[in-house]
Amino acid sequence: MGSSKTLFFFSLFCFLAVALTSALVEETEENTLGLAMNYYKDTCPQAEEIIREQVKLLYKRHKNTAFSWLRNIFHDCAVESCDASLLLDSTRRELSEKETDRSFGLRNFRYLDTIKEAVERECPEVVSCADILVLSGREGIVALGGPYIPLKTGRRDGRRSRADILEKYLPDHNESISVVLERFGAMGIDASGVVALLGAHSVGRTHCVKLVHRLYPEVAPELNPSHVEHMLHKCPDAIPDPKAVQYVRNDRGTPMILDNNYYKNILDNKGLLIVDHQIATDKRTKNFVKKMAKSQDYWFSEFSRAITILTENNPLTGTQGEIRKQCNVANKH
Ligand code: HEM
Ligand SMILES: *[C@@H]1O[C@H](CO)[C@@H](O)[C@H](O)[C@H]1NC(C)=O
Fold first, then answer.
1. 173 catalytic residue (yes or no)
2. Where in the sequence is the domain holding 210, given as residue range(s)?
3. pTM reported for the whole predicted model
C-alpha cells in the first residue's frame, strides 16, 4: 500500500518534471528566433494544411509553379531576411526586388496570391506572406519528389522591397564560387550546405541570356562537348532576344524531378552556370559533390538542413513588420 502510494507520487513528480522541462525547452526554442514549429496552432490551426492543398491543386494545373515556390525561398531569404519583400510591387518611390533585371526569370507570383487568398478566407490577417512563401516552397519541394522538411513559422512581413540591395546579397548568374561561399557563409550555411542547395538546379530552366557568355565568343573549355552541342542548339544566337523564350533545361535527364542527377551532371561537365562547374572541381566543395552524386539520401539530408537555415535567415518576428493583407502591397498605415 505504502509503496504504491510512493510510486504514485514519484510518477506524478516525473510527469510534472518532464512536462515542465519540455514546456521550458519549447519556450526557449521559440525565443531564440521568435519562430516556432506550428506557430499558428491556436490562431489558424489549418494554415499549413490549406497551403499544402493549394500547392497540390496549383501544381496539378501548372507543373512549373513548383520551381517558382522553391526558387522564391532563395530570392527572398538570401536578401537580408525571409520577409516576403520579394513579393512587393514597386511603389512610386522605390523599384522593388522582383521588378529588376536581377530577378529575371522569376515567375508565377500570381499563384502565390491564390494561396494567400485561400488562407485569408479561413483566417484573415493572421498568416504572413513570408510564412506562405516559405511553406509553399516546402510543399513545392515535396511535389517535385524532394524531401519533406519540417519548418518553423512565425515570420512577419517586411514593409519595403529595395532593388538596390540585391547586388550586395544575391549571387549573380556568373558569380564565382568564392563569392557564393562567402554570401551563404554569412547566413550560416557552410560549404556542404551550399553544394546541397545548388542541387535545386536539378529542376527548371535557364534562359539563354544567362548562358551565352559561356558559349560566345568562345566556348568555355571545361564544358562537355556533347553538352555544348545541345546548348548551342538551344541558344543559337550570341545575343539572344531577351524577350524570346529561349532556354536550356537545368537537368535534361529528369527536368521535373528534384533528384541528385544535378551532381552527376556537373561531374560530367554538364553544368550550366560557372558555379556549377566550380563546385565540382574546387577542393572546398568537390568531395561533397561526389558524396551527393552517390547518395540521394545524403543529399536530401544536407538539402533539408540547408533549407532550414536559409528559411530562418534573420526573420522579422514579434512586433516587427506586419501581417500583410495582400502579398504584393504593404498595408496602409
Ligand atoms: C549561387 C547561387 C545561385 C545562382 C547564381 C543561381 C542562378 C540561377 C539562374 C541564373 C537561374 C535561371 C533563371 C532563368 O533563366 O529563368 C536559376 C534558376 C533556378 N534556381 Fe537558382 N541560383 C542559385 C541558387 C539557387 C538556390 C539556393 C535555389 C533554391 C534553393 C535555386 C533555385 C532555382 C530554381 C528552382 C530555378 C529554376 C526556376 C524556373 O525554372 O522557373 N537557385 N538560378
Ligand atoms: C556578370 O555579368 C554582369 C552582366 O550581366 C556583369 O556586369 C558582371 O560584372 C559579371 N560578374 C562577374 C563576376 O563576372
1. no
2. 177-310
3. 0.91
